[in-house]
Write a structure and sequence with these properties.
The chain is of the alpha/beta class.
């Protein structure tokens, strides 16, 4: 596995049992995805990196996978920017119209390919398909979902709300719940599960992960939503005595690659 930054703690390699348990947990999380998965949350909580990992892991598990870039609000850190990585892994990408033409212009330009992709998921024979929608941040970004609400409601779907207590405006449980409710109201769909995704990009360490895990667990309790997983950078997964997988167990720890990079990396 990749080495971690010298800003993080260096701990010896994990045992085989921990590694195997984490691999099995990751496989269970990917297999538990509904045919249609919507990823929503606050700006900068890590929605796009989560959506990219879910798409790449679904394709690696043999699912016919499509990722829809539904972020028409923020021109930065869009999943379309990683189109080459996705397509090389066998993931089909549906991008905003101007992105299809090679531009990142911030123009509300949803492509006509989205509705047919959602409609295709409704067919019972398509249980080996995975359609993942990377939705723009906050309730403003979720507004784009409103165009497809009736179609989505007819599908077997999950709407995953991503929480990151290290992000401004979602650092308290009340702030995170207020934003979740605003997103639900704007798009007309209900969040079905929570994902804990605490991170500080390359500075993420086990203390950050543990804070995020406990925050996500508490948030799931007060909202009465299931906590599907909390993410752990692959560079930290299962390190000996790291404490990354305590109360919830490895089956809830979802190892993720840091696909999304900052502009200076």
């Amino acid at each position: 596995m990749p080495g971690i930054s010298n800003k993080n703690k260096h701990i010896s390699s994990p045992g085989d049992e921990t590694q195997e348990s984490l691999r099995e947990g990751k496989a269970r999380i990917v297999e538990s995805l509904k045919p249609l998965t919507l990823v929503v949350g606050h700006y900068g909580v890590g929605k796009t990196n989560l959506a990219l990992n879910l798409a790449l892991d679904s394709a690696a598990a043999g699912y016919d996978t499509t990722l829809v870039d539904l972020d028409i609000v923020n021109p930065y850190f869009r999943s379309t920017e990683y189109r080459r990585v996705l397509e090389e892994a066998g993931v089909r990408v549906i991008a905003p119209v101007f992105s299809e033409a090679g531009s990142s212009l911030d123009v509300p330009s949803l492509t006509g390919a989205i509705a047919p992709a959602i409609q295709a998921i409704q067919r019972p024979s398509n249980n080996q398909q995975r359609l993942i929608l990377d939705v723009g941040g906050d309730d403003e970004g979720a507004k784009a979902l409103g165009r497809f609400t009736s179609r989505i409601a007819e599908c077997d779907y999950d709407m995953l709300y991503v929480v990151n207590p290290r992000r401004n405006l979602t650092q308290t449980l009340d702030e995170a719940r207020e934003l979740m409710e605003a997103i639900e109201a704007r798009c007309g769909l209900s969040v079905t599960a929570i994902v804990g995704n605490a991170h500080l990009q390359e500075f993420t360490d086990e203390d950050v992960i543990e804070q995020g895990r406990t925050f996500a667990e508490a948030f799931a309790r007060i909202t009465n939503k299931p906590l599907i997983c909390y993410t752990v950078p692959i560079s930290l997964v299962g390190q000996k005595d790291s404490g990354l997988c305590p109360a919830l167990g490895p089956e809830h720890a979802y190892p993720v690659a840091r696909v999304v990079k900052t502009t200076w990396e």
